[in-house]
Amino acid sequence: MKGRWRAVGVLAGSLFAVNVVARVVIKLGFDGNDSAADRVTWGMFLAIGAILAVTAFRWGQDHPVSRWAGDTAAAVGIALLLTILVGPLLVGANPFGNGAGTFFLQVWLYLAAAAAGVLVGFLTLTALGRDHRSVQLQRYAEFKTSRPRRPVRR
User: Fold this and answer.
1) d(CA 73, CA 137)
2) What is the predicted pLDDT for the residue at 154?
3) H-helix or E-strand containing 133?
4) What average pLDDT does the structure give for the chain?
5) Total-model pTM
6) How far apart are CA 95 and CA 3, in angstroms?
7) Are 74 and 7 in contact (CB under 8 A)?
8) What's the chain look like in SS3?
9) pLDDT per residue over 53-106, tens digit each?
10) What are the φ and ψ backbone dihedral angles of 93, each rounded to 5 degrees?
11) Buried residues in 112-126 as b, exposed as e (16+ CB within 10 A)
C-alpha cells in the first residue's frame, strides 16, 4: 500500500512540476506577450497528456483498470488542486484574480488534457493487446490448450 501511494504522489508531483515550469517560463520569458504565453500553456497541457498516456500505458500492463484508474484519478485530482490553488501563488498571482470564468476554464482544460492522455494511453495499450485483461485471457487460453483432454470414465 505504501508503494501505491508513493506512485500516486510521484505522478501528482510530476504533473504539478510541469505546471510550475510552465508558469515560471511564462513569468520570466513571456510576461505580457499573450500569444507566446498561450503557446506555452498548450505545451504544458500536451506534456500533461503525454505523461498520463505513458502512465496509463505502463500501469495498464501490470494492473487491472479498476486499480490504476483510481490511482490515476487521485493523482490528477491532487495535481489539479495544487495547480489551480498553489500554482498561481508561486508566481505572485491570485488564483481567482482573473475571474471565475478563467478559473473554471483552467479546470476544464486540465481535466480534458488528463482524460485525453489517459484515453490515448489505454486505447493504445488495448489495441496492442498488452493490457492486463488481454494478457490474462491469453494465458488462460494457452493453459487450456496445453493440457491434454482428460477422458471421461463411465
Assistant:
1) 26
2) 66
3) helix 132-146
4) 87
5) 0.84
6) 32
7) no
8) CHHHHHHHHHHHHHHHHHHHHHHHHHHHHCCCCHHHHHHHHHHHHHHHHHHHHHHHHHHHHHCCHHHHHHHHHHHHHHHHHHHHHHHHHHCCCCCCCCCHHHHHHHHHHHHHHHHHHHHHHHHHHHHHCCCHHHHHHHHHHHHHHHCCCCCCCC
9) 999 999 988 888 888 899 999 999 999 999 998 888 887 777 777 788 888 888
10) -115, 165
11) ebbebbbebbbebbe
The residue behind cell 513571456 is 30
Residues in Cβ contact with 134 at an 8 Å cutoff, skipping those fewer than 6 apart: 126
Cell representation of residue 51:
505523461
Q: CB under 8 Å to 130, separation ≥6 — which residues?
A: 60, 61
pLDDT at 1: 61
